Predict the structure.
Amino acid sequence: MNMFTQAEYHALCGALSNDARSLYCLGLRPTTNLSTTASEPLNYKFLLALLNGEHEQDKPYARGRQINSLLRHLEQAGLVALTAEQSLEQSLNGKSILLPLCSQAQDDFAHLHRQHQPMKTDWQPDPKLFEQMATLLGLIDKQFEEADVGEFVAYWLGRPTAVFSHFQWTQKFAYSMRKKRQASAGVVKHTVGGQQVPVAPGIQADDNARKLVEKYSAKKKP
């Protein structure tokens, strides 16, 4: 039986370094829970030794951030995903990450890996894939509007050298929505012209408070 799903195979055949492939195929995939797609807790010491191989004396890989750099490439290929609490800017040693494509259910998206192209003005995320990626990334609010898609498309149209598969574009969109949700968390907003805008720092009196002030002021007038 083939070790990899079709979705994994197509992603691994993409623009990846051999070191990134080795990290995935030998360091992550063999011990991943295929039901939850969660890896075993990462062991940087083991992964560094695995990548160095016969070059153990020279140690081309010596730091955890080098592991994170390869994980970033795998993330861009859709092969790994991080939870909302995780970041590649911090150590993931001892933490589990997700390998979403190892699930047989992901074979439904294998075709989304086959063609790579730059961003287009009429691009739209794959709805079913976005739903699954949003769930994996811990997005509670999975709704998005055309304005969200337009903002994403406008950003990447300005980077014509970026070429990704439809799977990767949808994944990036899911990440951008998570980032937007996190940035807006805890920010008080009000509606102006149909748009949600942050409320400037300061004290805003509610209607009841205004009425009390007006009533008190009226009593003080001669």
Remarks:
- The mean pLDDT is 81.
